[in-house]
Amino acid sequence: MMNWKGNKGMAVLLGTSLAVVSACSADSGKQPDQGSTPSGGVATQTVQKTREITVFTRTGPDTSDYVKEQAKEFTKLTGVKVNFTEQGASNYFTNLTNQLVGGTDAFDLATTNNTYVAPLAEAGAIEPFDEYIKKFDPNYDWKDMAFQYKYKDKIVAIPYNLSIHLFYYRSDLIPTPPQTWDDFVAESRKWTKSKNPNSPTPYGASWTALSGSEQPKVFYSMMWSYGGEISKDNKAGVGSPGAIKAGELWQSMMKEGVIPKDTPNWGFTNVFDALKTGTIAMAAPMWSAAYTELKKSDSPFKDKIKIAVVPGVKQADGKILRTPLFHSWSLIMNKKAKNKEDAAQFVEFMTSKDGAMREAKLGGLPIRYSVLNDPTLQPREFYDTVMESLKVGRDEPLVPYYLKQHELMNTALSSIMTGTNTPDAALKSAEKDLQTIIDNNKK
After folding, report:
1. Which of 38, 204, 222, 424 has its CA 20 to 30 A from that of 147?
2. At what angle do helices 241-256 and 215-223 cross, to 10 degrees?
């Protein structure tokens, strides 16, 4: 594989290609396009086939846009054409899963949220990268990557764009961000108009509580800090006292009216708009992607909105346990890919140190420490907060039953938010169902 630093690798590649062409031209003094004429046959012509790969991706700035820009540079250096098949967010993961499990060869690579990787790996639908890693650039530094995705000791996905939960707050109202979730609740009351008529914001806070891809992830950032677990040593933990405590916080803030009454229907865009328009004073946990978009927006509050590591829970030793969830957009290779070598080369190109820096300059959030720590990247408020959050952050476990787990958690959390069930009953029921799934998976 190439070293992508500068143009030296390109020169080597072109030199090799020209040597091959020269060798073909010199054979028996014939021109390369003359070919030979078998007995009674017609003269054949040698035609070099264009090398190309296809990437299936979800439309959006954190997925297809970054990959497309990287692809332009990759094609300039290698001549390998990168085609794209795009789909909107609706049913993207369902379509991706159905195609891969169904054995399609319509694309070589795909972008995916890492939490879908284990089910696809278990189904044998994606190609591990291990055999290709040996051919990677010798300067490719795996230790520099914030995390990797292995399933059964095989690298099944390589991340390129990080998402992590941060805490967003109006610094003109809240000079010092709350350190604990209890402080968070207290500040929410202070900046809710029904509690404080002088509050300039109608509500104190909000978060993504819409049933779907984000809701359980947002809950885990709170639950983990209270000592709850999704599962540990094959034992489900979403009905533990810590998990129930987090569920009680959700429901109590809803009942108290310190978050908007339609929060159960709020996704990322709703929370983003509420921050932008001054409807809420805080958002937590909230994705890192909101920061750049807020700063680029026309919000009158964009210079007043600051970020910090998410609040946590004070421990017996006085320290505060904070556990922001992180995940990533990753590249996976189709088991039926037609051009695995060039596909692997493109993954290397995108996720190398140079590729990570290119992504940062495009507005993405790469997963390499060396790039995140680079002092030339500004504003440092953002990158330093991301680095601090990564130190204490966690990811969901890669399990083959992830989709079922996610579905039952959505059901439990929605019932908590809408008040149709108590946190205790909802989460203990979810724990029982999750344990059954875990036990069946062991058989």
Report:
1. 222
2. 110
